[in-house]
Hints:
Layout: E1 4-9, E2 15-20, E3 23-26, E4 32-36, E5 50-52, H1 62-68, E6 73-78, E7 82-87, H2 93-108, H3 119-134, H4 139-158, E8 161-169, E9 174-181, H5 189-204, E10 210-213, H6 217-238
Parallel strand pairs: 9-10
Antiparallel strand pairs: 1-2, 3-4, 4-7, 5-6, 6-7, 8-9
Amino acid sequence: MLSRKFLLRNINGNLTRRLLHIKTASTPNENALKFISPDKPILPIESTTFEFTSTLQAIHSPLALQLFKLPGIKSILLGPDFLTVNKLDNYDWHDLSQEITDTMKEFLDHKDAKPVITNELVEKIQQDKQALEEEDESEIVSMIKELIETRIRPAIQDDGGDIEYKGFDEETGTVFLKLQGACKSCSASEDTLKSGIEGMLKHYIEEVQEVQQILDPEEEIAMKEFERLESQLKGAKGNVVDEGPPSL
Length: 248
């Protein structure tokens, strides 16, 4: 099994070298795989994740840019000690997972390793966190955020994803959330939202009536296109007339 490349002094005082250890873990999404670095942190900020869905976004992460050079990469979620990759449907994990592992090792273990994310992005994340902490919020919103951070988010991250609080409509009792990583494109994401997250929030906070997922603009377009194609296929099946087997 491979492990982190770093320098240690052995009993004789000589320098020995170990390989960087990268573990892989499956997720509920067959198109998402979680890569764990137990010996060396990935993100420099604890309890933070950051998702890149394009090479344009990845200019803020030299590691993400390297990974996007691999064919079949759809999105990348960076966490404190893990990285989740979503792949395109027509690519197989057999070769891709090894290429991702090799890229991570080469990047993280390089003697002149670059930061995983730029200083500009680190500063922006810290500023956003500080701004959120300074916001005046109701007791209900504070309870929702605390429940997400302590009970929901750790379970989501275990599955290679993350969740981001986006808002609460007090009139309708609707909580708006954004799923990331493996959970975002998972076929069971709706069940996760409704049966899991919504059920827990409603159980502990009576003001919560519903949970809705916030999608990025490109995700909304893809969802509408999928629904349109699905509707066309159903219509085509409904118009098929069974004429029996062809005559010879």
